Amino acid sequence: MNIRIHVIEAEPYGVVSPRLYGHFAEHLGRCCYDGLWVGPEAAIPNQEGFRSDVISALRAMPTPMLRWPGGCYADHYHWRDGIGTPEKRPERLGLSCGRSVLDDNGLGTHEFLRLCEIIGAEPYLAGNMGSGSVQEMCDWVEYCNTAVPTTLQRERAANGRQTPWGIKLWGVGNENWGCGGCYDPESYALEYRRYASMLRHVDPSIEMVFCGHEADWNQRSLSKMHLHAGLMDHFSIHRYWIGGGPGSAFSDEDYYRLLAEADQTEEFVKQTRMLLDDLTGGKRHIGIALDEWGVWHPEARTWGPNAVPGEAGDYGQACTMRDALATAAALEGFHRQCASLSLANLAQVVNVLHAPILTDGDQVILTPTYHVLKLHAPHIGAQAYRTEVDGTDTVPGGPAVSATATSGGITVVNRHLNEMAEVRLKWPQGSGKAMLLTSAKVSDENTSSEPAKVTTVALPVKFVDGEAYLELPPHSVATLTV
Ligand code: AHR
């Protein structure tokens, strides 16, 4: 394919907020315990209980925002269980996604917020609307954020934190249409109004996230919010791509279907935007929080297409080059919707589902998705522009070649399984650097025996007469930066 890409700087979409590159750490499978947290006494090298190798990987990815403690776990979680002397913390059933394991609460509020400081991530906490109460969540906000010397403030100081953390992002429940209490949309909205009013009294500066779902739930819950839109700062939706067949032994049809599903995420964001704008008449901007997204393969679920009945194991799944391409496809949409989408969290950060990082004993493995996220780092905080791609073939689901451009650089995706793409674009800078991510087979993945099978390499670029020329192999992603 001979491709010509045009970057239309006169048509900016807005700034790509670091919050669009958020991650998600739930007490589920081996994500929080074992993946992030091993405890300060562990033989595995750690910094204040967190794996040192994972910390380095998170810093380099980067990880601008991190959501915790769930997911479905959040609506069972009582924050007081995770503060104070670790040995005295209660051991509970760690409940998420219908699974129960022993949870010793070693990783609690102070530990999680310390991790965020170490890796430079903004914390996003999800409160308990399933088995908790309004007062319990108000107390959590006060414990974290108040500078007034209340009993909770003094307790926080006694537990080692004098200065308030000043946490902005608070989820009011999680998936309350399902695991978070099976509310109907109207009852959730009424309950949300009570929570949000009280939380705002405790700290008027917080940003609260309302739990949305699919169109019907969204419409019905929003109809109950219409005089109270001011209580919503963000509106949460989740999107998991489940139609791509098996995690690694997939067919060509499965491959293209999964990428098309990733593309459709943008349409879902646009439909949600229309509902929100209808509610507010455009007078108040409520951001869309895609606070769980990614690939969820059948080996890690008991529901949906190709699911294996029984247990979902530890929610680990294959993480192949295909998943990295799906990530890149979705990120293009995030950039286009950056004025509408206020935050997004890939699910989940270590070992669970669409993970960029895996751990195996004392080894850390960086998945193709990790590498593709790193390729997108130059776009974080940059101005996004519309692009036009000429000369591409079509593949099932849409064009084979697509691109996203920002003031940080340009990322090009060639999703064609067999054809390479010779790409040409205007590049007045006259020099630059390109990095490429591809693999021999699109089902390739990194494992403990072959940790660097799929990785980035430098891609030669020719700069001639104000233009850049680069060649992308089949199923590959490349970023060109100045
Ligand atoms: O990410 C796994 C689960 O998916 C989360 O706990 C829940 O919110 C969603 O259904």
Side-by-side strand order of the widest sheet: 23-22-26-20-19-16-1-21-25-24
Low-confidence stretches: none
Overall pLDDT:
97
Helix fraction by DSSP (H/I, runs of at least 4): 25-40%
Give the end-to-end Cα distance, rounded to a whole number of Å. 25 Å
Per DSSP, the total helix count is 9
Largest sheet: 10 strands, mixed
Specify the structural class.
alpha/beta
Instruction: Name every ligand kind in the structure.
Output: alpha-L-arabinofuranose
What's the Cα radius of gyration?
22 Å
Strand content range: 25-35%
Number of strands: 26
Shape: globular
Structure description:
There is one protein chain. By secondary structure, the chain is of the alpha/beta class. Helices cover 25% and strands 28% of the residues. The protein has 9 helices and 26 strands. The chain has helices at 52-60, 109-119, 134-145, 151-158, 185-202, 215-223, 252-280, 321-336, 368-376, and strands at residues 2-15, 22-24, 46-47, 50-51, 65-68, 92-96, 99-103, 122-127, 169-172, 207-211, 234-241, 287-295, 341-347, 357-360, 363-366, 383-390, 394-395, 398-399, 401-406, 409-414, 421-426, 433-437, 456-459, 462-464, 467-472, 476-481. The strands form 6 sheets. The chain has a 10-stranded mixed β-sheet, with helices on one face. Strands 2-5-8-9-10-11-12-13 form an 8-stranded parallel β-barrel, surrounded by 4 helices. A hairpin with a 2-residue loop joins strand 24 (462-464) and strand 25. Helix 3 packs across helix 4 (151-158). The chain is globular and about 70 Å long. It starts with a strand and ends with a strand. The protein binds alpha-L-arabinofuranose (AHR). Alpha-L-arabinofuranose (AHR) is lined by residues 26, 28, 70-72, 96-97, 174-175, 292, 347-348, 353. Alpha-L-arabinofuranose binds next to loops.
